[in-house]
Design brief:
Blueprint: E1 4-8, H1 15-31, E2 36-41, E3 54-57, H2 60-68, H3 92-97, E4 101-104, H4 116-131, E5 136-141, H5 154-162, E6 168-171, H6 174-184, E7 189-191, E8 224-228, H7 239-255, E9 259-262, H8 270-279, E10 286-288, H9 295-302, E11 307-310, H10 313-321, E12 326-330, H11 333-341, E13 348-350, H12 358-370, H13 372-386
Parallel strand pairs: 1-2, 1-4, 2-3, 4-5, 5-6, 6-7, 8-9, 8-11, 9-10, 11-12, 12-13
Helix pairs in contact: 2-4, 7-12
Length: 400
Amino acid sequence: MGKKIMIVGANFVDKGSQAKLYIVIDELRKRFSDCEIYYAHNDEQLDVSLYRFGKISFTKKTQSQVLKSNPLSSITKLFKKKDEGSAGDKDNYDIVSQMDLIIDVSEHALTSDSSMADIEFYMNNIKIAKKFKIPMIIMPQSFGPFDFDVETMYILGEMKDLLFYPKAIYAREQYGYDELMGYFGLDNLRRSTDILLVDNSFELSNVCSRFYRPEVPEIPEGNNVAVIPNHRCFSKKYNDNTLDLYNKVFAALKAAGKEVYIFCQSSEDMEDCKELATSFNPYGNIHLIEKEMDCVELNHFLKNFELVISSRYAACVQAYRNYIPVLLLGNGVKYKELTELFAQEELYFDILSEECNNYDIEDALKKLLAEPDVSKTRIQTRMLNIREKSCFEVLDELKW
């Protein structure tokens, strides 16, 4: 009988999160071919015939009930899965209690910038693992800051009690590593780059069934630039400045003879993609891709571009993975450290910062357009060092 493994912290709305789920499943099947993998989802409606993994409806209510259940009581069968393909007729308590491993692939939940409800949900996953003595691995993700106020500072004590339990916690950025070590002094804390950078010769058949067929939009070859926005940059506070920024970017791309394709990484960005395409349609070289691609389709589609302009982290990582230069218009430490990893600091701009100047971004883009091979060579060189060691080696430590 194969080992049972549950993956938490992923979702299909953001294709970067979906990609992390897929890569972890692929790695697990390559190491443990007969393992049973379960995706703990938040009531997402998925076509179960397309995937080679089980599903467990794992809402906050479900999670709470699992934690409160008493294994010696007959009241353990409190609820059933809402979708037929979740995992048969067993209740969630029975399924979770029999897991041999829990893997967390969250993006950035453990921070004072998150809601207390989201932090509690994250911590409850560790509580569940601890309750049933299930080994747990927290895959590379961002952590901190932990600037809690007086009313919420109590959560730091709970973190200190629980964060020692996982077999390994991987911090994706040095900042997050330093925050965790400074606050908690963890002996299970490790550093690793994002798992999307791992060159694992991904095998789609380990994740999807024969019924799955990726549908990638077709575009003409050559002179293509991808633009992937982020909804955060279009809030009322930033919208005017953001539109001015893209005006300068699109003008530079038009002058360079580039065809621009706007598309989303996350579902919430689609309306902003449409706004950009409509607002700057007069340039004549702006194209909107309305199809919402999954992570496999998105990765294939990105290979059509010689340059990516992105405010979404996973899209930047996927571009670097394919040795494509990125003008990174993000916000936060994870973006900054990602560009430092590939010696691309001059192409990173915190566009939500008051110090950010749109003319500086325009100048950086023009320089990149004039010398794209300089950036590409740096990415290829740095990637050799990044891929020497993988966080997935921790799976070998399980000695299954």
